[in-house]
Design goal:
- With 195 residues, the protein is mainly alpha-helical.
- The protein is built from seven helices and no strands.
- α6 runs antiparallel to α7.
- It is globular and about 50 Å long.
C-alpha cells in the first residue's frame, strides 16, 4: 500500500509539472517554441504581463517538491540500505529548493537571491540525489542504472548551464537539468507501483 501511495504521488507530481509548464508556456508572451528555447522556467513563474498563468507554474514547483518529500520519506527510504541520513538530507535540500522556487519568484531584486538559491538547491541537489540513490540501494539493477544515468546527464547539463549563464540558449540547458528530476519522479512512481 505504501508503495502505491508513494508511486501515485510521484506520477501525479511529475505529470502535473509537465502539463503546467506547457500550458504556462502556451500563454506566455512569446511563441511556445521561443518560450522553451529562450525563456527560463523561472520566467513562467514571475507574476507579470509576460506570464499570465504564473500561479500555475508556481503551483507545479510546490507540488513536485511535496510529492518528492512524500515519495522519498513514505516509501523510497525503505529501499535505501546505506547512508540513509545523506539520502534524507539531499531529499530535503531538493524538495525545499523546488518549493522555494515556487514561493519566491525571480525577477525581483529583493528576492531573486533566494529564488536562485532555491533553484540551485533543487537542480544541483536533485541530480546529486539521483546519483546517491543509485548507489545507496541494495542492488544495481535497471532502475538504479537509469537513475544514475539521469543524475549524470542532469549534472552535466547543470554545469554547462552554469558556465554559459549569459548564453541565449541557457534555458535549454536549464530545462535539461530540471527534466532529469521530473523524468526520475515519473520513473520512480512506476517503479514503486510495481514492487
Amino acid at each position: 500500500m505504501k508503495s502505491k501511495v508513494a508511486g501515485i504521488a510521484l506520477i501525479i507530481g511529475s505529470l502535473y509539472y509537465l502539463l503546467a509548464e506547457v500550458i504556462s508556456a502556451a500563454f506566455f508572451k512569446a511563441s511556445i517554441s521561443n518560450t522553451y528555447i529562450f525563456h527560463t522556467i523561472s520566467e513562467l513563474g514571475i507574476p507579470n504581463g509576460n506570464s499570465p498563468l504564473f500561479w500555475l507554474m508556481n503551483s507545479a514547483f510546490i507540488l513536485i517538491g511535496l510529492t518528492l518529500l512524500l515519495g522519498n520519506f513514505y516509501k523510497l527510504k525503505d529501499l535505501i540500505i546505506k547512508n540513509k541520513s545523506i539520502f534524507y538530507i539531499f531529499t530535503l535540500i531538493t524538495a525545499f529548493g523546488v518549493i522555494i522556487v515556487g514561493l519566491i519568484h525571480g525577477g525581483n531584486p529583493l528576492t531573486s537571491g533566494y529564488h536562485t538559491l532555491g533553484a540551485v538547491m533543487a537542480i544541483l541537489g536533485g541530480n546529486i540525489l539521483m546519483v546517491l540513490i543509485s548507489r545507496f540501494m541494495g542492488e544495481f539493477g535497471n532502475y538504479q542504472k537509469a537513475t544514475l544515468l539521469l543524475g549524470i546527464i542532469g549534472l552535466i547539463a547543470f554545469w554547462v548551464m552554469f558556465f554559459n549563464i549569459q548564453s541565449i540558449y541557457m534555458p535549454v540547458f536549464e530545462r535539461l537539468s530540471v527534466y532529469t528530476l521530473i523524468i526520475w519522479s515519473f520513473m520512480t512512481g512506476i517503479f514503486l507501483l510495481k514492487i
